[in-house]
Amino acid sequence: MIPARFAALAIGLLCLAMPFKVAAQTTDTNLWLEAVDSSAALDWVRAENTRSEPVLTRDPRFSTLQSQALAVLSAQDRIPTPAFIGEAVYNFWQDAEHVRGIWRRTSLQSFRSPSPVWETVLDLDALASQEKANWIWKGALCRPATHDRCLIQLSNGGKDAVQVREFDLASKAFVEGGFHLPEGKQSLAWLDQDTLLLTRDWGPGSLTESGYGRIIRSLARGQTLEQAKTLFEAETRDVSATPSVLRDAKGGRVVLAGRGLDFFNTAWFMMGAGGEFSPLALPTLSSIHGLFEGRIILSIQQDWSMGGQMHAAGSLLAVDPTDLSRIEVLYRPSARQALDRDQIRVTDNRIVAVLYENVRGSVVSFRPGADGWVQSRYPGLANAAVTLVSTADTGDAVLYSEETFIAPTRLMLGMTPAAESDLVKALPARFAAEGLMVEQKEATSRDGTKIPYFLVRRKNLQLDGRAPTLLHAYGGFQLSKLPVYDPVVGKLWLERGGAYVVANIRGGGEFGPAWHTAALKANRQRAFDDYYAVAEALIADRVTSPRHLGAYGRSNGGLLMGVAMTQRPDLWNAVVVESPLLDMLRYHRLPAGASWIGEYGDPEIAGEAAWIASYSPYQALKAGVKYPRAYITTSTKDDRVHPGHARKFAARLGQVGAPYLYYENLDGGHANGADPRANARRWAMHYVYLTQQLMD
């Protein structure tokens, strides 16, 4: 999916068609489908659903696949995802009985036991029923130090826009007269026990061109939104303004404001003693992870010269915010190594991070020593995907998970790298993996770059080109595709004889910032060429053939699918195009598309529009081309990637006489995970389609 880096920042906008400068767009007869909730557009959606849905749901295999997916998604014995809050462990849990979910807690000791004793803190099903609202859980931001109150974020139907309410953990009730923010995409931070820093829609002129809040204000307890005090303003052309408050174990605090210049570049500002913000000359391509003994822990995605030294992109640094020349290096990357910038945490006495070496993860720790920073490694599985699940509010305890494509997830508790980590929970096997094997291989892309990919297949597979094979990739926003244990893929595909491939194409973050920038903007075609190279390698090795090869991607991966389908229709017999970007000459005009100009480029600039147009799938569709029958799917309430992309692409396929299936979920949002039953139905429809195209 498109990353949720700005998902909680800006208001949802009515996505109506807008005029566009490029002449080719004036002849677009499908612009009316961009009006999300117009009666005409919804009538078209219902007609498409009525046509496509029976093709999938009346297939005799649908019922079994749906029940298997639901069993996986709502299983009582899956690992509860833990989050430390104060002294307790919290978890948000959904199952067949709690469809919307319950927020619950237990002690760490109880959580480590085979049968934890849970206390329900908030029942979202009961709340939705009581308020007659379609509430979907979007998380909680809890008050630091005391850890006694949280800002609960509730979404209407799964949208990114949320309503925010203050909740008391002791009384298990919303705070009467507490903070209560109307629906919007908003970014929040606790400044102190009774003050918030936030961005949201404050009224006319308060949003960026991307539709995100550009004004940071402080809101004190008891104040109305109109009384909030302006502290910082970004420019209208920026993506957003974002507040953050860093705290260390010794009581130190640094308050920052970030001007999102584009999706990746941020200009940083630090609050002074008088409440004013001054520029902090950190590199704009950087991520801030916390405060450690007064120093900002910073990972950089660009080379940075400071204090007479050059620091390489991908490095992890400790920086004194009062004197930026005082920099300590915790980590410097080497070839085929990268820290996961989204998996770096600061505890009381160390920095914990996930390190990938040739797309194989481990947990590492950095702590100050007599001769500089000392790096240690936590014990763990080989060839695994690793996630930092939660770190304790006090001390150095870290809960992390590890898994492989065929080894179920294990949740580990590490106190220090020197101590043996404890196995806390283990996911039971969800599919029969005994006859499966995992290979990591390389394909050679068009420009000679070696592209790694994972192939999960049966050990006794006959290399005759007949294996039904699903090729998945993403290729954008510096997000990595890792060797994760996916029970749905395992049960609904691998167990039924399919092969599964994950391609680590450029645009991702598998090998650090350079792997991402190699396919940025004008170089986007490299990501597509990488994907084709993997497909061609699978065909050359006789794992599969175009008749049995399918492609799957969503969001930015959905863009990849649209390009793969229009540039190389000869390679596939199935393409699942989910929640996609497809009209790349208008993506920036469909919220929140303008925030992604840093990834794709600006269609308003003639030179950039030219290379965007060279691959934009919507414009590339032509009559007379033999396209595979595609399955295009999205959600009406997706307020991150506009459903108009999918609608218009499907309509255009019909206009050029190409076969397709289109299904639009009238609920659900971009993430698709709000309701296990709806999600099980979604996956069953996916795999019925793939079965029809690749196995039948």
Extract low-pLDDT stretches: 1-25
The CATH superfamily of the largest domain bears the name: Alpha/Beta hydrolase fold, catalytic domain
Largest sheet: 8 strands, mixed
How many β strands by DSSP?
39
CATH architecture of the largest domain: 3-Layer(aba) Sandwich
CATH topology value of the largest domain: Rossmann fold
What is the CATH level 1 assignment of the largest domain?
Alpha Beta
The number of distinct helices, counting runs of at least 4 residues, comes to 13
How many domains? The number is 3
Side-by-side strand order of the widest sheet? 32-33-35-34-36-37-38-39
So what's the overall shape? globular
| Distance between the first and last residues' Cα | 29 Å
Task: Give the strand content.
Answer: 25-35%
> What is the averaged pLDDT score?
93
Percent helix among the residues?
10-25%
Rounded to the nearest angstrom, the radius of gyration is: 25 Å
Query: Helix- and strand-based class?
Result: alpha+beta
Report on this structure.
- The chain has 696 residues and is an alpha+beta fold.
- It folds into three domains: 39-70 and 430-695, Rossmann fold (3-Layer(aba) Sandwich); 78-184; 186-280.
- The protein has an eight-stranded mixed β-sheet with strand order 32-33-35-34-36-37-38-39, sandwiched between helices. Strands 5, 6, 7, 8 and 9 form a five-stranded antiparallel β-sheet that branches. A four-stranded antiparallel β-sheet has the order 1-2-3-4.
- Helix 2 packs across helix 13 (676-695).
- The longest helix is centred in the C-terminal third of the chain and has 20 residues, at 676-695.
- The radius of gyration is 25 Å and the shape is globular.
